[in-house]
Write a structure and sequence with these properties.
With about 290 residues, the chain is an alpha+beta fold. The protein has a domain of about 80 residues. The protein has 10 helices and 5 strands. Strand 4 and strand 5 form a beta hairpin. Helix 4 crosses helix 5 and helix 8 crosses helix 9. It is globular and about 60 Å long.
Length: about 290
């Protein structure tokens, strides 16, 4: 998730050398034909479909009915700090221009953290992640500034060759028009998702949702996604995998999407076993 240009080049090579066959009818640009075509008037959120909390899809039903989920404090801290850290570094490079250096970035990011800490629950973990991001890209600044004259825009594109909170219109494939992927690497192109809880196969399907949406909107193939589990303790630990967005994953996602449409209209009932992390757990247990 903390992409550098060197890492992007390595990922691009891996993808080029990997099998990537995908059936034409499962590409997002075939949104007007089965099996991607849908007749529902509703639009779904990728995360509601692929969080892995509820195998029956009752999560979608309850959320659509307006039941308020119980979200633990600080559950979004890591995503917030990650996104804010990347955006802040880009902004500072544009502001500082040729005056920017690795040491200068470290100083400025220390000052910026006082703004960020007001919006997080666990300040200590937030600072660990903030410093991790700062250290990676301060080294990248020194690496590229020493080699050649660069405009501010080109320096940003070399140091941080990706976008965070990338907006996608998924309406053609039955998803909401304002879905956002955690990160998007346009040079490959590659969708990336960051998760902070336990590993679930359903998380792979989130990559499919974003891939289909991009394919429907821009008509470019998205063959791979990058799934990263991030743990922040005394340091930042990552477990990232390159996922082929295959026919089987695409078909599985479309099945989940279609069940989601059905769940909006009809309560599918509770699963055989409820996930302890489900934010609707207390609501369902009252029934």
């Amino acid at each position: 998730m903390f992409f550098t240009l060197t890492e992007v080049l390595l990922l691009a090579k891996r993808i080029r050398l990997s099998p990537k066959a995908v059936s034409e009818e499962l590409r997002g640009w075939h949104w007007n034909e089965p099996p991607i075509y849908h007749s529902s008037t509703y639009f779904l959120n990728v995360s509601d479909l692929t969080n892995g909390f509820c195998e029956t899809g009752r999560y979608v039903h309850l959320k659509h009915k307006g039941v308020k989920p119980e979200i633990p404090e600080g559950v979004n801290d890591i995503h917030y700090v990650y996104s804010e850290g990347i955006q802040t570094i880009k902004r500072l490079i544009y502001e500082e221009g040729e005056n920017m250096s690795g040491n200068r970035l470290r100083t400025l990011m220390t000052d910026e953290f006082y703004r960020v800490m007001a919006n997080v629950h666990d300040v200590e973990k937030a600072k660990i992640l903030w410093d991790h991001i700062t250290n990676i890209y301060s080294a990248e600044i020194d690496k590229y500034k020493a080699k050649q004259f660069l405009t501010r825009d080109s320096l940003v594109s070399l140091i941080i060759p990706f976008h965070v909170e990338y907006p996608i219109d998924g309406s053609l494939v039955g998803l909401q028009s304002n879905i956002r992927a955690d990160a998007f690497v346009p040079l490959i192109p590659l969708i990336a998702e960051m998760k902070t809880g336990k590993q679930r196969r359903a998380h792979e399907l989130s990559l499919v949702g974003y891939a289909l949406a991009i394919e429907s909107q821009f008509e470019i193939p998205i063959d791979f996604g990058y799934l990263c589990y991030v743990i922040v303790d005394k340091s930042v630990l990552t477990n990232c995998r390159l996922i082929h967005i295959s026919d089987s994953l695409r078909s599985d996602f479309l099945e989940v999407r279609d069940r989601g449409f059905e769940a909006i209209e009809t309560d599918p009932g509770m699963p055989k076993r409820c996930d302890d992390s489900c934010p609707f757990l207390r609501h369902c247990n009252k029934l």
